[in-house]
Design goal:
The structure is a homodimer. By secondary structure, chain A is α+β, with helices and mostly antiparallel strands. Chain A has one domain (2-70): Alpha-Beta Plaits (2-Layer Sandwich). Chain A has 2 helices and 5 strands. The first copy, chain A, has helices at residues 11-24, 39-52, and strands at 2-8, 26-29, 32-36, 59-65, 72-77. Chain A has a 4-stranded antiparallel β-sheet, with helices on one face. In chain A, helix 1 runs antiparallel to helix 2. The radius of gyration of chain A is 13 Å and the shape is globular. The relative contact order of chain A is 0.27. The mean pLDDT of chain A is 93. The A-B interface holds A 1, 4, 6-8, 28-32, 46, 49-50, 53-65, 70-80, 84, 87 and B 1, 4, 6-8, 28-32, 46, 49-50, 53-65, 70-80, 84, 87.
């Protein structure tokens, strides 16, 4: 599956969350990652993130499609990390 | 088309960008909106956002799929705005 992850996490935990995501996915912009994950990679990643976040305060969203080709991407402005097309 | 928008915009412009997105889409969390847009709504929205942002510094990403059903969504932690399922 192809994933786009966005998160809104307390400043005390956000760096640790970012470090874990960097191991599995591509950094796109502040609090946004993209990448292909197998089921087991996703489960491992999810488990590690759950250990860090406070589920009563933080929010992490995994958007996914069966493959990257099913997800169109358009960027306005500067590409903070060159993985997509620019309008 | 169903859209997820994420943005990484300078603090001087971010409130104005947020205000415009609120007119067209649902606020999900910090710098993330979701919603169904027709082609003309998308064009209008894009035009208004381009007038606000500094394209040499800010980044706005429009992810889209043909319909919401093609985009799976999983939320870890608290749902900051109740439009999806929680794991």
């Amino acid at each position: 599956m192809y994933y786009v992850v966005v998160y809104d996490v307390n400043v005390d935990r956000v760096n640790e969350v970012k470090k874990v995501f960097r191991e599995y996915m591509d950094w796109i912009q502040n609090s946004v990652f993209e990448g292909q994950l197998t089921r087991s990679e996703k489960e491992k990643l999810e488990g590690r993130i759950k250990e860090i976040i406070d589920t009563s305060e933080d929010m992490v969203v995994f958007y996914s499609t069966r493959a990257e080709k099913y997800l169109d991407k358009e960027v306005l402005g500067v590409e903070k990390s060159p993985t997509g097309t620019v309008i």
